[in-house]
Amino acid sequence: MIGWISLALIAVGAFFFLAGSTGVLRFPDVYTRLHALTKADNLGLGFVVLGLSLRADSWIVVLKMLLIWSLVIVAGATASHLVAEAARMSNVPPWRKRS
Amino acid sequence: MKMVLIGFASVLMLTVIAGLIRVERGPNPADRMLAAQLFGTTGVAILLLLAEAMEIPALRDVALVFALLAAMAAVAFVKRAWHPGPHEKGDPS
Amino acid sequence: MFGIPFVALATGASLALTPTREWRIRPVGALRYAGYFIQQSVLGGIDVSMRAIKPSLPIDPLILRYRMRLVPEYARVLFADTVSLLPGTLSSGFEDDTMTLHVLDCELDVEQSLRDVEERVADVFGLDLSVGGGELAAIDGGAVGEYR
């Protein structure tokens, strides 16, 4: 039973990774792509970590994976802020629907 | 179970390939950088899945290093490779 | 396992060597923040995923500026990182007391969610928000009135 829940969680995680990459390919500019990347991929990793935690043999493994996840979240959010700022500084025009 | 986990890792590899298309298309350096960031997050997930599937716990440490390096790479990129500064109104290409 | 005491030692040393440790974390506020953060980042991930896979690609982006009520640098950093994981908002720079952010859909009530995040962050550090601000300051190439 726990095995199946774990697989379902990992599948949900994979879905968010796929959606994130879809966004990176389909969204029209760097800013919107950053939205897709930071939010969807971090959530995807969260679900993968959650799913794998259910199968882990020890708490140390769970803690290590949670540490990795929080590191990726902080790094991802900070990196996307910096990349978006750099893009604005070099006048990469934001895409507008009505212009 | 083992094969299913490896299957999920392969699906994630597909999303990395999507990122490669974005690196190829650009159009500006920031797009390439964000694709590299995608490698970081997805790479971490793939390594964690493989660590479990193939029973190689050391891959989790590789994932940890990956996470750290992806963060460093993004900061280094912004600070060194692509930072025209607040006053220079440069060409985005 | 062997490394745990060393990690504790290194963390302690690093904290002790930091010249001015002005911030203080309130455990209750941090817990409330964590619950809010998890809930909102899940919503944020679902929101952007749906927009990315829908054939019509329902986005209508806009760059806004928000006048922050949070003053200390460390609180602003946590604020910006949180904003980037919320549905439809992405922080993209600071200028004086304002934060620039990219919004995925100008139909979203950005001002209200930014005020919420600020209050949660203030709760973590026990900060006072009555200094003023807390409203959208401008949009790129226009005034706030043009928003929506």
Tally of DSSP helical segments of chain B: 3
Q: State the oligomer.
A: heterotrimer
Overall body shape of chain A: elongated
Q: Main beta sheet of chain A: strand number and arrangement?
A: none
Span between termini of chain B:
47 Å
**The number of domains of chain A:** 1
* Radius of gyration of chain B using CA atoms only: 16 Å
Q: What is the strand content of chain B?
A: under 5%
Largest sheet of chain B, in brief, is:
none
List the domain count of chain B as a whole number: 1
Which regions of chain B contain 5 or more consecutive residues with pLDDT less than 50? 85-93
Order of helices and strands of chain A: HHH
Q: Total number of β-strand segments of chain B?
A: 0
Low-confidence stretches of chain A: none
Structural class of chain A: mainly alpha
Q: Give the largest chain-chain interface (CB within 8 Å).
A: A-B, 49 and 51 residues
Structure report:
The complex is a heterotrimer of chains A (99), B (93) and C (148). Chain A has one domain (2-89). Chain A has three helices and no strands. Chain A has helices at 2-26, 30-55, 59-89. In chain A, α1 (2-26) runs antiparallel to α2 (30-55) and α2 packs antiparallel against α3 (59-89). The longest helix of chain A is centred in the C-terminal third of the chain and has 31 residues, at 59-89. Chain B is flat, with a radius of gyration of 16 Å. The N and C termini of chain B lie far apart (47 Å). In chain C, a hairpin with a 2-residue loop joins β2 and β3. Chain C is globular. Chain C is α+β, with helices and mostly antiparallel strands. The chains are: A mainly alpha (99), B mainly alpha (93), C alpha+beta (148). Chains in contact: A-B, A-C. At the A-B interface, α1, α2 and α3 of A face α1, α2 and α3 of B.
Overview in brief:
The complex is a heterotrimer of chains A (99), B (93) and C (148). Helix content of chain A is 83%, strand content 0%. Chain A is mainly α.
